[in-house]
Write a structure and sequence with these properties.
The complex is a heterotrimer of chains A (298), B (436) and C (276). Chain A is mainly α. Chain A has helices at residues 7-41, 58-65, 67-98, 105-112, 114-117, 120-130, 137-144, 156-184, 188-196, 201-229, 233-238, 250-260, 264-288, and strands at residues 44-45, 53-54. Chain A has one domain (60-292): MetI-like fold, CATH 1.10.3720. The longest helix of chain A has 35 residues, at 7-41. With 436 residues, chain B is of the alpha/beta class. Chain B folds into 2 domains: 26-138 and 319-360, 3-Layer(aba) Sandwich (D-Maltodextrin-Binding Protein, domain 2); 141-317 and 378-435, D-Maltodextrin-Binding Protein, domain 2 (3-Layer(aba) Sandwich). The N and C termini of chain B lie far apart (68 Å). The chains are: A mainly alpha (298), B alpha/beta (436), C mainly alpha (276).
Chain lengths: 298, 436, 276
């Protein structure tokens, strides 16, 4: 495009560059450069104090041999596999429930996102108290109805699911709003036509509603999965990874490796591997689930 | 500008610079972890600042649980305090990263007389030919016990020759069982004892993290080597049968004999020390550094007794702290002056008078013991006896990470989730790559 | 006039919804309730309403546990970042929407790409940059990586401004207005809804942020609420009532803003969920 630009166009172009400069600067320094640095760092061993030492693929090899690394991957996968479907189904259900011309719709929607605007750390501490084995609300209720207390956060078999429940609880509202918006995009006529045709609510759901919100659902699922893979705040605030390694999710382990034990090279390798895992999962999603997404409405 | 005004300006600048340089105070950051020793050291440091008006020392207290993380992240941020407390098990990690100043040249330059210290203490701080500390104090382990609770239960006080064994606990467990009560007043030997409703425990502070004042001593007393085969060794020896036996015994104390509570994260009422002072525990193992905390005990009388004798004798962990200097401190000379003072006779005398830790200078032991004349505990000298027999202290460059794993897995064992064998196997699996 | 049966049905419906909401939000009520109890009540009581509200818990938290400082730091950090992002994204959004310059679409495409990259990847290198600049434990260290805006915000503003008709700009250009004037006098007022949306989304996100402040602050001086609260768990004796007071102080401001700016939150969530 070697067209000569008129002076006006030149001024416009200059203005354009000037206006994007702050944004671009931030992007270059804190997004682009770090991605390259992360990849490079992963090939080194560095404790931040002495100079980095080049070790090639040793970090990757060592991590793959480490039992706790495998554990953290498993814990995180478990987290994702429970959190995403349960949260999405619940959110969809509630969205369908709320999807009619009802009063208080704004109030109701707002109330549902109150946990979402709350600090994860704060939410985590509140729930840690509710989950307290001796004095927490939940066990108090259980005792009063004659059941045994449950070691929600104290037992390795219970801790992770307890944290996941809080995660589902906290972000539920966000997904309700997204799905509500998606549902509201479905024209009434389509729904009404299905009712006229004699379809039961269940059939209506599977043959009409679901296909028509599938784009929204699909996108939301992907974003949810990507976010959940990086879960950190709640496990950090509630258990710090314990008891034992029960809640040592991937990012928590990464943080400890890098900032508690000063193995920056290994931590970077973990970050790169996370990127790859997420990439593969997303690609998988697109290939397998993406086919079933119905874009007719768009 | 005319020549005259340039000269004037330069003169003024010189005066200004030299003036402020003369009045410039160097500020040193001093970090430590024991709140109980704060008063004593504040007194010593005040005296130091009086004698050295050009140095200002800022004391920073960081709780033990946080201390090493703080120092490590401080290392990462290239921002360590100038002078700080060092601990034998952890300091090699800092040396390996070039964070500690080698004091040998300074010791030689200033002709420091190191014969006044217990020699074994100095050895702690030498590593590969360099010397990273002098000696601040030493400590051993014994048991504090609540005399009133013993009286109430009608149990005679533990004697110096009390014993334990890993098979049935021996006299040690028998005594503790008589001091553990459920809410119906039944003790742990009673057939109807309800372990779900215990209101008073015989023993407190059993936790994976309680190695120095806890399980390690018992391992030695059973003939075990300890954690590592030798200082800076690369072999984990916790899998010795003697060691596993002891760890299982510890787990039994909680889960079988029910004389001690598991290390739950939030025990109502607080830390093991708070629970001892609240009379919820009859006996707790404590290092001699806790004696000064004992001064604030009101409402019951207490004393100390040495470790119970185990199958292979009686051992206590013997440790000594020292002050370290950050290798990259901008104020090396001033930091050295502070360190010299703190490890010197005058300062250690001041601190000993507060009775918080046994001074590293041999001749000052009596000053420390005198601080306890006429008050609980009567048998404070027990701690000096415990210094006679000690085991091998685990030291390793990656100690921070290794211990993190050990405490976690042992906590799981104490909670009853796994037995000692499995816990040690888990530890082995996770630390193997850290030991090379 | 609705049929009685239908009315009953409707009332039942709303009762069910609000019952669900009550249970759903109960933990927050419990947190408020615990924050006003005495320690005795905390361990023994089972009621939602404390006997006599212990407001001292709040002052204790503010004074003795440094929560006051954390609160101020959080306000400063979140506020400055929000300001920076609004300005920076509105500038870039305007440029991408309305101005023509070589490489515009390519750069924008690149931006969108980075939205897909997990934040974990850039974490350590960003830390290293801040470390090398000597900005650990400083306000700049906390703010700088975020104050220049982010892809989401730019995207939001761009989409919005694309819908603004050209006539206003053309009229302004005829009057001899420069691009800066067009931006500040026309685009910004026009984009107010989008800017408000961006502002509240950023404010909440930064107020609640944990990881970055956690790694760039060590000393108490610049700690923010999330970091300060997280340390509560490590205390040997946990004062639940004071802790809950701190928790309430950390969450209430954002809840208040939520209710004041409901519309913008909903729009923000919808935007992030519905664009493709």
């Amino acid at each position: 495009m070697a067209r000569k630009m008129s002076p006006k166009r030149k001024r416009e172009a200059v203005a354009g560059y000037l206006f994007i400069t702050p944004n671009l600067l931030g992007f270059l320094i804190f997004q682009l450069v770090p991605i390259v640095v992360a990849i490079l760092l992963a090939f080194t061993e560095w404790d931040l104090i002495n100079d980095p030492i080049w070790v090639g693929f040793a970090n990757y090899r060592n991590l793959l041999k480490e039992p706790v690394f495998h554990l953290s991957v498993k814990k995180t996968l478990y987290f994702v596999v429970i959190n995403v479907p349960v949260q999405s189904m619940l959110a969809l259900l509630i969205a369908i429930l709320l999807n009619r011309s009802i009063r208080f719709q704004n109030l109701i929607r707002t109330l549902f996102i109150v946990p979402w605007v709350s600090m994860a750390v704060a939410v985590g501490l509140t729930w840690t108290w509710i989950y307290n084995s001796q004095f927490g609300l939940l066990n108090e209720i259980l005792t009063r109805v004659g059941l045994d207390k449950i070691p929600w956060l104290a037992h390795p078999d219970w801790a992770l699911i307890s944290v996941i429940v809080v995660n589902i609880w906290q972000f539920l509202g966000f997904h309700i709003i997204v799905f509500l918006a998606g549902l509201q995009m479905i024209p009434r006529e389509v729904e009404e036509a299905a009712i006229v045709d004699g379809a039961t609510p269940l059939t209506r759901f599977f043959k009409v509603t679901l296909p028509l919100i599938s784009p929204v659902l699909f996108y939301d699922l992907i974003v949810n999965v990507i976010g959940t893979f990086q879960a950190f705040d709640l496990p950090y605030a509630m258990t710090g990874g314990g008891p034992g390694n029960a809640t040592r999710v991937y990012n928590l382990y990464l943080y400890q490796k890098g900032f508690q034990f000063l193995r920056m090279g290994e931590a970077s390798a973990m970050a790169v591997m996370l990127f790859i895992i997420i990439g593969i999962t997303t690609a998988f999603f697109f290939r397998v689930v993406g086919r079933r997404v119905n874009y007719d409405l768009t | 500008m005319s020549k005259k005004s340039v000269v004037l300006f330069v003169l003024l600048a010189l005066v200004f610079v030299s003036g402020t340089a003369g009045a410039e105070k160097v500020t040193l950051r001093y970090m430590f972890w024991d709140q109980n020793q704060q008063e004593a050291y504040a007194a010593s440091i005040d005296e130091f600042m009086k004698q050295n008006p050009d140095i200002e020392v800022v004391m920073e207290l960081a709780e033990w649980g946080d201390y090493w993380t703080k120092l490590t992240t401080g290392m990462a941020a290239r921002n360590l305090p100038d002078v700080f407390w060092g601990h034998a098990a952890y300091f090699s990690a800092f040396v390996a990263r070039g964070a500690l100043l080698d004091l040998k040249p300074l010791i030689e330059r200033d002709n420091i007389d190191t014969s006044i210290y217990y020699q074994s203490l100095l050895d702690f701080w030498s590593y590969e030919g360099a010397q990273y500390g002098l000696a601040k104090d030493w400590d051993t382990i014994a048991f504090f016990y609540n005399k009133d609770l013993f009286d109430e239960a009608g149990v005679p006080y533990p004697t110096d020759d009390w014993s334990w064994n890993p098979q049935d606990g021996g006299e040690f467990v028998r005594i503790l069982q008589q001091l553990t009560f459920d809410d119906q007043g039944r003790n742990a030997l009673h057939p109807d004892f309800d372990e779900k409703r215990i209101v008073q425990y015989g023993l407190g502070d059993l936790a994976g993290s309680n190695m120095q004042a806890g399980w390690l001593n018992f391992v030695w007393m059973n003939g075990g080597t300890g954690v590592l085969d030798k200082p800076y060794g690369s072999k984990l020896v916790m899998n010795e049968p003697e060691c596993i036996e002891v760890l299982q015994f510890w787990s039994d104390l909680v889960n079988k004999y029910h004389v001690a509570p598991p290390p739950e994260a939030t025990v109502a009422g607080g830390s093991p020390w708070d629970l001892f002072t609240a009379e919820k525990f009859a006996v707790v193992p404590q290092g001699s550094w806790m004696l000064t905390a004992g001064r604030s005990i009101e409402g019951f009388s207490w004393d100390v007794v040495g470790m119970p004798w185990g199958p292979k004798g009686r051992y206590s962990a013997f440790n000594g702290l020292a002050h370290n200097i950050y290798a990259h401190t901008p104020h090396k000379e001033e930091a050295w002056r502070l360190l010299k003072w703190l490890e010197g006779y005058e300062s250690q005398k001041i601190v000993a008078q507060y009775g918080c830790v046994f001074p590293a200078i041999e001749s000052l032991v009596d000053v420390f013991l005198d601080a306890y004349a006429g008050r609980d505990p009567e048998n404070v000298a027990v701690y000096t006896e415990m210094a006679e027999n000690t085991g091998i202290w685990p030291m390793h460059v990656n100690w921070n990470e290794i211990f993190d794993i050990i405490q976690r897995e042992l906590d799981m064992m104490l909670q009853g989730f796994v037995d000692a064998q499995t816990a040690v196997a888990n530890i082995e699996m996770q630390v193997s790559h850290l030991l090379q | 006039m609705k049929k009685p049966l239908r009315l009953v049905g409707e009332i039942c419906f709303y009762l069910v919804i609000f019952a669900i909401l009550f249970v759903y939000l109960f933990p927050l009520l419990w947190q408020l309730s615990t924050s006003l109890k005495t320690m005795d009540e905390v361990f023994r009581g089972f009621s939602l309403i404390p006997k006599t509200p212990l407001w001292e818990n709040y002052t204790t938290a503010l004074r003795d546990f440094n929560v006051g400082r954390f609160l101020l730091n959080t306000i400063l950090v979140a506020g400055l970042i929000t300001l920076g992002q609004v300005i920076s994204c509105s500038m870039a959004g305007y440029a991408f929407a309305k101005l023509r310059f070589p490489g515009r679409d390519f750069i924008f495409f690149l931006y969108l790409g980075t939205m897909m990259i997990p934040a974990t990847v850039t974490l350590i290198p960003s830390y290293v940059i801040i470390l090398e600049l000597g900005w650990i434990d400083s306000l700049q260290g906390l703010i700088v990586p975020f104050v220049f805006g982010n892809a989401f915000g730019t995207f939001l503003i761009r989409q919005f401004l694309q819908g603004v008709p050209r006539d206003l700009e053309e009229a302004a250009e005829i009057d001899g207005a420069g691009y800066f004037v067009i931006w500040s006098r026309i685009m910004i007022p026009m984009a107010k809804p989008a800017l408000a949306t961006l502002a509240v989304m950023t404010l909440v996100s930064q107020w609640n942020s944990l990881v970055w402040p956690l790694i760039v602050t060590q000393a108490d001086k610049w700690k923010v609420l999330s970091v300060g609260l997280a340390a509560f768990r490590l205390f040997r004796t946990i004062q639940w009532n004071t802790m809950m007071a701190a928790v309430v102080m950390a969450t209430l401001p954002m809840i208040i803003i939520l209710f004041l700016a409901q519309r913008f939150f909903i729009q923000g969530i919808q935007f992030s969920g519905l664009n493709r």
